[in-house]
TrEMBL record:
This is Antibiotic biosynthesis monooxygenase. GO terms for molecular function: monooxygenase activity. Gene3D superfamilies: 3.30.70.100. Residues 130-222 form the ABM domain. Keywords: Monooxygenase, Oxidoreductase. InterPro entries: ABM_dom (IPR007138), Dimeric_a/b-barrel (IPR011008). Transmembrane segments: none annotated.
Length: 228
């Protein structure tokens, strides 16, 4: 069966072979709540679909309009089998409960690197931020080096990033971008980091060759589903 959890996911779980992120546009904060409730009901009334799905988490965008989905798969094959057999019936039930959901995009990734600053502590993430970093065609090979540069900038500027609990860098399967899934102690801590003066290391991150653009989004974890 399926059970709910309030715990945030662990992106470093060694069993994860294919993390998948997707976005739905639902329109309003009320529809965010309704859609998340519909997802929970739809999944709880069904058996957990496969041992290849380790966890499924939903986040409400602070834009009041979107939901982000983060599912942890043992392999790409497990995800593809789920799509063929189990996905559509769940989508249909959710769409009946909340008509008009726009599914903006779905991307498969490989986690490249993580850094946790609160390992062993009891602090719970109060704010989740994702940053998508796109690279120009032909510069995809720079993704790992850029992620390494970001972590070096954070390490060299701990005061400017107080409240950052973890950062997890994922490389898109198509080779085009990096997704940083970062957990913060609070929205206020993230705002303070944004307002901090840029160090030389952060200037190098922003001016790195081959970067095509950044897109940041802010979320609150609203639903976690695990096998019972």
């Amino acid at each position: 069966m399926t059970r709910r959890t309030e715990q945030h996911p662990d992106p470093t779980d060694s069993r994860i072979g294919a993390p998948v992120f997707s976005t739905w546009r639902v329109g309003t904060p009320e529809r965010q709540r309704q859609a998340a409730e519909a997802i929970g009901r739809t999944w709880e009334r069904r058996p957990w679909p496969t041992a290849g799905l380790l966890g499924y988490h939903v986040y409400a965008g602070q834009d009041g309009s979107t939901l982000m989905h983060y599912s942890q798969w043992s392999s790409g094959q497990a995800f593809e089998a789920f799509v063929k057999v189990h996905r559509q019936e769940r989508v249909d039930e959710i769409d009946t409960a909340v008509p008009g959901i726009e599914r903006v995009g779905l991307t498969r990734y490989r986690r490249y690197r993580s850094r946790e600053w609160a390992a062993g502590e009891t602090r719970v993430p109060g704010h989740v931020v994702t940053v998508r970093i796109d690279f120009e065609a032909g510069d995809e090979g720079r993704r790992e080096e850029w992620a390494d540069l970001v972590l070096k900038a954070v390490e060299d500027d701990p005061e400017g990033h107080a409240g950052l609990l973890s950062a997890h860098f994922h490389l898109s399967a198509d080779g085009g971008h990096v997704l940083n899934y970062a957990e913060w102690e609070s929205a206020e801590a993230y705002d303070r980091a944004l307002a901090a003066p840029l160090t030389d290391a952060w200037e190098r991150v922003r001016a790195y060759p081959g970067l095509a653009g950044f897109t940041g989004s802010r979320y609150t974890h609203v639903l976690g589903l695990l096998p019972a």
